[in-house]
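pasting for ref
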Amino acid sequence: MIIVDKKSLIGGEVMDEHNLDDKNKFLYPRSRYYGQVKPENLVFNANLQEFAQKVGYITGLETSGKLDPEDAYKQIKALWQQLKRSKKALFIGEEPQEKS
């Protein structure tokens, strides 16, 4: 992608920032969060949505024969490990420790 004066040239078409934003919303949709609003929950929710989106792309590539099943498995496993590390780092699902 080449960026020229805040416009990008994609496939011979010039896309302004508004159209690029629409494209990103289409390719990387985010659902509204209705859970308990805490910073760590919001971060984990964003990570979870990104995980789901990437798994969907990998699944589509594997289904269409563009990605080897073993490669798809390895990529999804790596994404899962990343999500688990995120959960642990954010202390999701753990009881809050009392302050002394």
